[in-house]
Amino acid sequence: MEPNEKEKLSGTQLEEDISVGTAADVDEVMKKYDRESNTRVYEGWQMWVVKTIMAAFSAYCIWATLFMTGLLERRLTLFLGMIIIIGYLNYPIKKGSVRVNHVPFYDWIIMILGAGSFFYFAVNAQDILKLATRVTNDPFMVAVAIIGVLALVELCRRCVGLPILCVAGALLVYTFYNVRFGKVIYDLFYTTNGIMGTPIKVCSTYIVVFIIFGAFLERTGIAAFFIDVANSIAGASAGGPAKVAVISSALCGMVSGSSVGNTVTTGSVTIPMMKKTGYKGEFAGAVEAAASTGGQIMPPIMGAAAFLMAEYMGIPYAEVAMKAILPAVLYFTGIYIAVHLEAMKLGLKGMPREELPKMGKLMKKIYLLTPLVVLVVMVTLNMRTMQFCASIAILITILVGLINKDDRITLMKIFDAMEAGGKGTITVAVACAMAGIVAGCITSTGLASKLITAIVAVSGGHAIVALFLTMICCIVLGMGVPTTANYCIMASTCAPILISPEIGIPVVAAHFFVFYFGIVADITPPVALAAYAGSAIAKSPPMKTALNATRLAIAAFIVPYIFAFSPAMLFDFTSAGISGVMVPVTVVQICITSLLGIFGVAAALNGYVYGKLNPLFRILMAIGGLGMMIPGTVTDLIGLVLVGGTYLYQRMNYKRSVAA
Description:
The protein is an all-alpha fold and 660 residues long. The protein has helices spanning 3-18, 23-33, 44-67, 72-90, 105-123, 125-131, 139-159, 162-178, 181-190, 198-218, 222-234, 240-256, 259-277, 281-294, 305-313, 317-323, 325-346, 359-362, 370-380, 386-403, 411-445, 447-459, 463-477, 483-493, 495-499, 507-519, 529-538, 542-552, 554-565, 573-576, 582-606, 615-629, 633-659.
């Protein structure tokens, strides 16, 4: 082969290495794996009608959460009826049903009957509640309930997926087998122990307003601001673009409430930069997916889950945010270290400083953070209800958007935000309704005690086995489910098992445990939606990207087990039996040793510290890292010796090789 032909070939190969997927590529991959992405296509006046309906739904939700009083059942059934309407307007019966401006007749029938069932309940709520269990003596009322439930179940299949439906379906069969038919229908549809249980109540009251707030915040240009700040901080260091992805995704992800959405938004900027720097496509996509998923655990917002956790656990929001700090820091530190070691191993450089944004100029846009600051302060000080605080934050976001001359908010952007908020609520609300069915079945049958007995029997009374089984359950139930709905499901089904006296995990630790493992479903094969979104942009194999993301997010698989047994990591010193002067000492010790420990684990997985680590040193680093992450003086000292000794040995070897 001639030299110039070799050059052409290598140039072609280089282009392939740094090429990235287009928006169409991302859309194609997400339609294949993500049910939320399979939506109907509208054009012309039909598009504007559908958009207006969803924007009006958002406006109604804000008004209802602030001002609507009266029967809870009436408010919830109105909300669910509207969800069915906008749900069937958006989601077709199967993948690939993309005829423009087309809603088949059977979808109109399901929509009208399903929404009609809930609206009928809303109009006649007073009389229905007076009838109590006698309502199921009327065949018409039984039919209303069955139609409403089936319409929701079918919508769940279309927009959320099968895993949660399989669980709900199995529980329904079990419930109908063990409980009288009329009682099941009454409990699931006509009381607040089923579909209208805590998950959908929380969704209609809190979640929907925070989803709308996130949609408005995105339209102020805050994502671009976060990326610029991350570039200014880390862009010039070794492998800078990957570190930028970690920082920016942590900041954007805590607001967006969507691992997949954040991967696509920030990944479209960071993944091309990473590939141009020299990272492989599967690594670049994995970094973005892992960091975007971690945004959901990043305080103070945590994708709105922090507010829900406060509600479920019955503790102040500020306490939830504080307890989430150290695990989140460990998660992102682990990814950051892995990215740095990969850059050192490949000999990658950062971006030229002259091409990076200057921090001084960026500080002029610090006002973009005002809505977030106001929201956190108002909720922390318990000034008003959470939904009121979120509504005030929306108004402030609009004002901030008017000030931002580089990306000024307009009436059309406000309309788009309202429409996006309505659309984003569909999957969350439907998943919450299914969580209500699951919780209702467990309550009606007394299955909770049986599940606890079964898990205790399988685990032999060992908490570690019970935690492992719960982890598997959380990952399966979390497949394809939005963050906030995901937590509602986990809090209703899995957390009570861990909290039971037989297992004995503290309440706060149990809720954080199920929340973490519900979240990592987005990067855990086989349904790793965030990783698949990253692979579409990076033009890399989806499964390879997902496996890399799982490796990078290893802290999310380790840390929950540690705080389950040692709540001190969550600053839950009462459960840990720590008090007095030992509290600040323990905080300092845990923070320092945990960070050193995550370095040891990351280095072991990456296999590089100043040079390639042999298998023995990788094992020592892993054991030492885990030892320091487990709170306790003995384990900390053992871990420090192993990690510190390996690090010093590698550094001495490196210096000798350089001197030679």
